[in-house]
Amino acid sequence: MLTLLTFPAAFGQFSASPFCVKTAYMLQLSGQSWQRSDMLNPSKMPHQKLPVLRTSQRLVADSDLIRDWLETQGANFDADLSDIQKAQSRALIRMAEEHIYNHVVLDRWGNDEVWPILRDMFFTEVPALIRRPVTHAIRKSVMKRMDGAGVSRFSDTERTDRLERDLEAISAFLWQSPFLFGESPTAADMSVGPVLAAMRATPKETQLTRRIKTDTLLNSYLDRLEQAIPL
Description:
The protein has 231 residues and is of the alpha+beta class. It is 58% helix and 7% strand.
């Protein structure tokens, strides 16, 4: 049986990481038998990140590489898509994972109201005596990455404007069908959906959580996706 090494459930989600949720969705639709194994510290994993899929032969790291592996085993997440739709799917996935996701990270790690919740939930393995200085250093590293990506350099208004254009692009697809490319979820839904769901699930009300929660179209889409692929 396949084993998905994943960050634990959090904030009402299968996992705090949308990439772990994405992989769980793919496993559900692949027809493979699988189980989850939670961990908080992926430092001994390939790439030092999660998700990782344990197969009978090896560890497969990274959600995209896990998708590739599942497709070599017979899964086809975009079976009914045209070549143009597959290209659009690729663009939507990259937009969600390389841009929108950074806004989610900043909303959680850069927000002084949200950060203590994350710290106390995800760093329980760090001894209490040194937890604050250790987690402060980790938070500083994450924020440096956000600065390098450019996200934290924008004003709140600039960030909102940039993000709004992405959300409008996603909504344009959803005005036409229940899911991004038709009546059933495809690979794009399994990436875009978890990132938006993570934005909605941030454990304090922020500008981003309000943006998703007050959008009937996006809210109903996320609910539909969770119902279509129960985890």
